[in-house]
Write a structure and sequence with these properties.
Distance between the termini: 49 Å
Order of helices and strands: EHHEEEEHEEEEHEHEHHHHH
Strand content: 15-25%
Largest sheet: 7 strands, mixed
Low-confidence stretches: 45-56
C-alpha cells in the first residue's frame, strides 16, 4: 500500500523522527548492528548550510548526540553516539570539531567498579547528501583494525587503550540509496531515498508493504510528520531561508561582475573583473547579511542557525536584531 511520508532530509522532520525514542533506537540499532537497551539524548546542536543549487536538494546540517547502553554477551556497555546529517562531505573541520568536543568532554565518562573514571567509546554516524564516489556501497562502516606490522596479519584481540583512542564510524550516502534494497538496513534507509519524492518536495511516496513489520513504527512516525501542520510550516520556512540565501549569493555575484567589467574596460586591466567582483561583494556584504538576519528571524530560525547562514557570530546577529527592536 502506497503511503505518503514527510521527507526526513529536512531538519524538522529528522528531529521529529528522532524525538520518538523507540524510533531512534530502531534506526540507530539497525545501522550499528547492535541491540540498544536504552538511548538518552544529550544536549543538541543544530546548524544550517546553504542549499546546493546544482542538486536542488534541501539537505541541511543537523547534529544529535546520544548516550547509549548496548547489550553485550556478558551484560552491557555504555557508548556515546554522535549522529550528523549534512549536505557535503567536505566540511571536515566541522566534523572534526564536533568529534574533538566529544573526545574532550569530561562528562563522556563512567565510573568503573574499581572507582576509576573511564572515558566512553564513541560511535559516529553520518548521513551525507553528497556521495563519497563510492556509490556501489550506500552504507559504509569504518572500524579500526589491529595488524601485526611485520606480517600484516589481523590481530584478533581487544584492547581498551586502542578502543578509546579510535572510534567506529558508519556513513550513509543518501544520494547512493537509489533503489538499493539488498538487505533490511537498505530497506529501512529507503525512507531517505529522494527517488521517492513527489511533486511536493516535502513528501515522499513509499510502499508500506515493502518494510518488515519491525520497521513500521518509523514509517508511522514519518506519516504523522507529513500530516503535522507545524512540521509542514517549518519545512516551508527552511525552503524560504535557503531560497533567500541563494538569491543573495546570485545578487552579489552579478553586481560584482558588472562592476568588474566596468573597471576592466575603463583601465584595460586584465585583473579588472576579479577586482570588481571583490569590490561588489564587499560593498553589499553588510547590507545582505543584515537582510539575511531579518529574513532568517522572520522564518523562525534560531540565532545559531542565522549566524551559520550569514557568516556572522551569534553576538553580531543579536546586535542586528536589537538595532531593529527585536529582543
Amino acid at each position: 500500500m502506497k503511503v505518503e511520508i514527510a521527507n526526513p532530509i529536512y531538519d524538522v522532520v529528522f528531529k521529529y523522527m528522532m524525538e520518538d525514542n523507540a524510533v531512534a533506537k530502531l534506526l540507530i540499532s539497525s545501522i550499528i548492528g547492535e541491540d540498544i537497551i536504552s538511548l538518552d539524548p544529550n544536549p543538541q546542536e543544530i546548524t544550517v548550510e546553504k542549499e546546493d543549487a546544482v542538486k536542488n536538494d534541501t539537505l541541511t546540517v543537523y547534529r544529535l548526540d546520544f548516550s547509549a547502553k548496548i547489550k553485550t554477551s556478558d551484560g552491557h556497555r555504555l557508548v556515546i553516539i554522535e549522529m550528523q546529517k549534512a549536505s557535503l562531505a567536505t566540511d571536515f573541520m566541522r566534523f572534526r570539531g564536533y568529534l574533538g568536543k566529544n573526545y574532550a568532554d569530561e562528562s563522556n565518562t563512567v565510573r568503573g567498579e574499581d572507582g576509576k573514571i573511564n572515558p566512553l567509546p564513541i560511535y559516529t554516524i553520518y548521513f551525507l547528501g553528497d556521495d563519497l564516489k563510492i556509490c556501489d556501497t550506500p552504507v559504509l562502516s569504518v572500524f579500526p583494525v589491529i595488524r601485526d606490522v611485520a606480517t600484516q596479519e589481523i590481530v584478533n584481540a581487544k584492547s581498551r587503550f586502542i578502543e578509546l583512542l579510535n572510534h567506529k564510524c558508519w556513513i550513509v550516502q543518501i544520494s547512493c540509496l537509489k533503489k538499493r534494497r539488498r538487505n533490511e538496513l537498505e530497506i529501512l534507509l529507503s525512507v531517505f531515498d529522494q527517488e521517492n519524492r513527489t511533486d511536493d518536495r516535502h513528501i515522499l511516496n513509499v510502499n508500506e508493504d515493502d518494510f518488515p513489520e519491525k520497521y513500521r513504527p518509523l514509517i508511522r512516525r514519518l506519516k504523522m510528520a507529513a500530516s503535522n501542520p507545524e512540521v509542514k510550516k517549518k519545512m516551508k520556512a527552511e525552503d524560504e531561508v535557503f531560497s533567500y540565501m541563494q538569491d543573495i549569493e546570485r545578487s552579489a555575484h552579478y553586481k560584482g561582475r558588472i562592476e568588474g567589467e566596468a573597471i576592466g574596460l575603463e583601465k584595460g586591466e586584465a585583473i579588472g573583473l576579479e577586482k570588481g567582483e571583490a569590490i561588489g561583494r564587499a560593498a553589499e556584504r553588510t547590507e545582505l547579511q543584515e537582510n539575511g538576519v531579518l529574513n532568517g528571524h522572520r522564518a523562525g530560525c534560531s540565532i545559531d542557525t542565522i549566524a551559520t547562514i550569514t557568516g556572522l557570530t551569534p553576538e553580531q546577529v543579536t546586535e542586528i536584531l536589537k538595532r531593529h527592536g527585536i529582543e
